[in-house]
Amino acid sequence: MWWRVLLIFLAYLLVGAHFLRYEQYEFAIGFALAPILLFIKASWSTRLLQIGLLVSAILVWGVSAYDYIQIRIAMGEPWLRLSIIMSGVILFTCLAAASGNGIIKKRRNRSPFA
């Protein structure tokens, strides 16, 4: 289960670093501290983190990828490698969100007396 937590933590740090690059410190701190919700044993906290990752995959990485590729095309520079890298970032973020299902499943199967 530790690797699932690590994936979620890294995905949120990656989104936070994106906001830090544009000096949006409030969002950067919020995304960097969001994985603290994993310490709450309720399933709603993990679901909230999953929704946050899926929304950031679309609204942060998807929009950024589109903008960066459009800039590359307008400048007449190659853009294929950028699109592959950004697709990898989007897939990583979605994989991290999907790994939250395993956390919820493990917590549900855990005995309350263990």
Q: Specify the structural class.
A: mainly alpha
- The rough form would be described as elongated
Strand and helix order: HHHH
Report the uncertain regions.
Answer: none
- Total DSSP E strands: 0
Helix content percent band = over 70%
Strand-residue fraction? under 5%
Number of DSSP helices?
Answer: 4
Mind summarizing the main beta sheet?
none
Beginning-to-end CA distance, first to last residue = 17 Å
Overall residue-averaged pLDDT value: 93
What would you report as the Rg, rounded to the nearest angstrom? 16 Å
Word description of this protein:
- The protein has helices at 2-21, 25-33, 43-75, 80-109.
- It is mostly helical.
- Helix 1 (2-21) packs antiparallel against helix 2, helix 1 crosses helix 3 and helix 3 runs antiparallel to helix 4.
- The longest helix has 33 residues, at 43-75.
- The chain is elongated and about 65 Å long.
- The mean pLDDT is 93.
Topology:
Elements: H1 2-21, H2 25-33, H3 43-75, H4 80-109
Quick rundown:
With 114 residues, the chain is mainly α. 81% of the residues lie in helices and 0% in strands.
Spell out the key features of this protein.
114 residues; mainly alpha; 0% strand
